């Protein structure tokens, strides 16, 4: 089964990140690595994000030394990713349960 790397840049979205993460964890497609990139210079929410990262063995946490912004944070995660495919989700978005499965099927069918 093809691995998909899901990249989540995190910046000041504490109110939403748990629901976002749950929508990724509950995907029908299970061969995922989930990379959260903590991109806040103020580390006050880091303990909370670290506790979320322990919810599932597929979650990896990267902590930027300084604020890089969403685009560069995604690039940091891409370099560390191990999946054949990459999917991006913002820290305040939600996915349909079958999103990754549908996309993997499409990409395999259309090479």
Report on the architecture of this protein.
The chain has helices spanning 14-25, 46-53, 70-80, 99-110, and strands spanning 4-10, 32-38, 59-63, 85-88. Strand 1, helix 1 (14-25) and strand 2 (32-38) form a beta-alpha-beta unit. It has 111 residues and is of the alpha/beta class. Strands 3-2-1-4 form a four-stranded parallel sheet, with helices on both faces. The chain is built from four helices and four strands. The two termini are 15 Å apart.
Strand content: 15-25%
Please give the oligomerization state of what you see.
single chain
Major beta sheet, specifics? Answer: 4 strands, parallel
User: If strands are numbered along the chain, what order do they take across the biggest sheet?
Assistant: 3-2-1-4
Task: Give the ordered list of helices and strands.
Answer: EHEHEHEH
- Terminal CA distance reads 15 Å
Summarize the structure.
This protein is α/β, with parallel strands linked by helices.
Secondary structure layout plus pairing:
Elements: E1 4-10, H1 14-25, E2 32-38, H2 46-53, E3 59-63, H3 70-80, E4 85-88, H4 99-110
Structure characteristics:
single chain; 111 residues; alpha/beta; 4-stranded parallel β-sheet; 21% strand; globular
């Amino acid at each position: 089964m093809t691995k998909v790397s899901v990249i989540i840049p995190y910046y000041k979205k504490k109110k939403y990140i748990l629901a976002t993460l749950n929508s990724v964890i509950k995907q029908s497609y299970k061969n995922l690595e989930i990379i959260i990139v903590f991109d806040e210079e103020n580390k006050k929410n880091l303990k909370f994000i670290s506790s979320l990262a322990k919810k599932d063995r597929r979650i990896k946490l990267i902590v930027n030394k300084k604020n890089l912004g969403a685009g560069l944070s995604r690039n940091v995660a891409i370099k560390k990713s191990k999946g054949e495919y990459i999917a991006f989700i913002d820290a305040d978005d939600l996915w349909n349960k079958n999103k990754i499965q549908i996309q993997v099927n499409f990409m395999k069918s259309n090479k």
